[in-house]
Amino acid sequence: MPQFKKRKPLAICSVCGAFTGEHRDLNHRCRRSHQGRRCWGTFKSNLGLVWEECLGCHAIGRVGSEICVECSGWGWRLLG
Ligand SMILES: [Zn+2]
Ligand SMILES: [Zn+2]
Asked: What mean pLDDT is predicted for residues 40-51?
């Protein structure tokens, strides 16, 4: 089975740094919760952010049949 590189996440939460790949999440509230409270951040476009390919999976998001632990399956990491 061929493995394809993932596209970079579209946006990240301004508070917790969660990634999203969904267009509908842009400028919407983050869905993560922290100790039972919902995150108060909003997803902001990744424009202007610098991404690097995950070194563990080379942007594929998986290592063999396992989700890559380095990037939680996103394939990308935020620089800085
Ligand atoms: Zn968040
Ligand atoms: Zn990875």
From this structure: 90
